[in-house]
């Protein structure tokens, strides 16, 4: 009872300590997500979150960097608010307040980390150590994480950052800080997106998907949920890409039956219904999200669009190399994602 009271008081103190500006931000946030629009037009909610709420809330930063920060933060915000599900009504205020109160600090912490990461030199001695110390001793906010998943240890995350910056710097030793920011945000977002692949492959059964691509895929979607798509768009994604998978597997079968045993084992292609389908779906989804991010940029600054395009192209090439999940065992240090109390 006493403990509850203390929690309550702390809760009240936290709300009271919001500035006028932050309160206004929080109200707009709650209003935006309370609308039915979040289900029907998640992309539009995302766009308004970045432009109407995030953008005015961050200061002390070069104007041209705001779109990057707001665009990528927004993806995490949407992700977490979507996860609230039925607890939305009682939890939304805590998330709104937490976001509006801490957005500036989270961004500052992230930018300082990027500063450290961008100081990378090929002969740098204690690079990952510095990175680990920094992440360990700073905030890891849900909407602007330095380590986007609790499953990833700090050691693994810092190694991944090192790989990212090693390749960025080998490509361009004088990498600008502004570009380092874009690469880092895009890279962290990629870990969020990779989760869809894994979730899908974890639950998907090849034989069932092959037997009934569309219905089975829709069934999976009810568990996985691509946050920036509404239900119809998810169905569309399943339908189009289930057909694509069917065709590819059919072609593989045909080649095999035509050529019989004459194909060498290396030349053999196999049908992997789940992997093919999620591969196609992610391609389309990423395309949609990139388009949306670009719209955010256009809303702010046309100049930055090109940088993001280059950044995401660059990252796509690097993505194969940087496989976070394979190194999960590396360091056991962890820092949890910080959610509102
Ligand atoms: C987003 O903002 C635009 C322009 O202010 C408005 O017309 C639209 O209804 C908003 N969308 C949502 C989902 O709030
Ligand atoms: C790296 O760390 C070691 C010990 O922790 C220290 O002696 C050394 O000076 C550091 N090197 C650099 C380049 O900071």
Automatic annotation (TrEMBL):
<protein>
    <recommendedName>
        <fullName>Saposin B-type domain-containing protein</fullName>
    </recommendedName>
</protein>
<keyword id="KW-0732">Signal</keyword>
<feature type="signal peptide">
    <location>
        <begin position="1"/>
        <end position="17"/>
    </location>
</feature>
